[in-house]
Amino acid sequence: xxxxxxxxxxxxxxxxxxxxxxxxxxxxxxxxxxxxxxxxxxxxxxxxxxxxxxxxxxxxxxxxxxxxxxxxxxxxxxxxxxxxxxxxxxxxxxxxxxxxxxxxxxxxxxxxxxxxxxxxxxxxxxxxxxxxxxxxxxxxxxxxxxxxxxxxxxxxxxxxxxxxxxxxxxxxxxxxxxxxxxxxxxxxxxxxxxxxxxxxxxxxxxxxxxxxxxxxxxxxxxxxxxxxxxxxxxxxxxxxxxxxxxxxxxxxxxxxxxxxxxx
Length: 263
Ligand SMILES: *[C@@H]1O[C@H](CO)[C@@H](O)[C@H](O)[C@H]1NC(C)=O
Ligand SMILES: *[C@@H]1O[C@H](CO)[C@@H](O)[C@H](O)[C@H]1NC(C)=O
Ligand SMILES: *[C@@H]1O[C@H](CO)[C@@H](O)[C@H](O)[C@H]1NC(C)=O
Ligand SMILES: *[C@@H]1O[C@H](CO)[C@@H](O)[C@H](O)[C@H]1NC(C)=O
Hints:
The protein is of the alpha+beta class. It has helices at 2-7, 9-16, 103-108, 144-150, 156-161, 172-177, 180-183, 220-225; strands at 27-28, 31-32, 52-55, 58-63, 66-74, 79-83, 116-122, 168-170, 185-192, 206-207, 209-212, 229-232, 239-242. The radius of gyration is 24 Å and the shape is elongated. Its EC number is 2.7.11.1.
């Protein structure tokens, strides 16, 4: 190795100045952190860089609209469930705000198809009641009335007008393209596992946002199988297999380096 470094000083410099973090933590509190996620820079998939923040014991998912507490990561189903503490639910009414993700986040870890955005107290002029009516769908036949009636937080929508203001169950794409102001609905809530909501009262719905991730397979299995952790070079952003003890490989640990060809 020393001879090699003497012969190729420029390469030695590049080896020594690689600036990814030394260790990839594999837990944040009780939540296991595996590929494609990483809480230390240089760990996990490059597309999800700067997406998680572990402020132990809590894990947060960061988007342009805020920092959302991660409830659960299901590595088998490739989902991550977050909760927005400033969102309205059946039991608490909060001022509305938008839920925004970056384009990369929308591409690699969008809300799952069974995460429903319920737009509440919409004005009769709302686009989702008119031109974009088709964006609203039936969620196991639950009605606005049922929501306003069962939830302490939403009863106020009927009280003031003595009528049932329209609501709309829709998907993330609707909120993505139209802000709450354009939608002309004063509040929203989000529910996960819409598939299992038949006959379940809004009081017992699971409020939150389930994200479903899918990333191109870049050979991480091979790196893990060789005892490494998948990561990336924080400067070049190229994939790295981070290996303890032995030197890091581009694809796997214990890679035969070019050096060996000279023996
Ligand atoms: C492997 O990469 C990590 C992160 O870049 C670095 O801290 C470590 O020193 C590297 N190990 C070797 C043997 O080069
Ligand atoms: C995580 O969030 C905390 C609190 O906002 C902040 O101080 C810290 O720098 C963040 N860490 C990373 C790695 O972004
Ligand atoms: C419901 O929406 C109307 C506008 O359409 C608004 O004036 C009213 O304040 C909203 N109700 C609540 C409780 O925010
Ligand atoms: C949605 O469900 C309601 C009952 O809550 C029903 O009256 C309506 O026809 C359904 N609409 C569609 C498009 O299935």
